[in-house]
Design a protein that fits this description.
single chain; about 230 residues; mainly alpha; Endonuclease III, domain 1; 2 domains; globular
Length: about 230
Amino acid sequence: MTSPPSPGTRADLLAIFGRLEAMHAWRGWHWWPDADPFEVAVGAILVQNTAWTNVERALGQLRNANDLSPSAMARLSDDELEALVRPSGQFRQKAKKLRAFLALAADAGSLEALLGQPPPELRQCLLATWGIGEETADAIVIYSARRPAFIIDAYTRRIFGRLGVGPHSDASYREWQRFFVEALPEDRDLWARFHAVVVMHAKHLCLKRAPRCADCLLNTRCRGTAPGRDG
């Protein structure tokens, strides 16, 4: 009989990924490989502190107004941009964050030039931009620039904390990211899909409260929602 892989090893993480994929492969994901890079970046900024359904409403308003491009958005007044992104919440702050991102792209020469930078340089430019933190920067790198970056979010901490895999739930973003990057092969498509199935699992089965454990293919190894292990 083959022994199960040790927790946290490459084989173990890939086995977890396989089960997440088996549970959620049929679900839709909002950042498909052919998604428009600017729309992805805008969505990554607007999704801060809100649900994706609210972001979809804001993106829909921008799209219907023909303002979902760098040049069109840059021509908007502050009031116009705030009105269009209002459904995403914190609309004044998010409008300013979008302005900062537009300025970053303009300083680089174009959005394409910005996203064409090597991932470490792009990430540093993003982190130096007002309103963009690590999670947002990594989302832009992997889904907009389509380069390797591993995203850590509350869903990752929740799921892997319950599985007893990875750093403690209170560990820093960098510690969590290093854990996955060092264990997994550097594969942009794998990392992008890994984040997608983690998000879908947390939203549909591994809920913060009342998780649907009976429907989860990982339930035999889950530590549950004990204090200190949950996110």
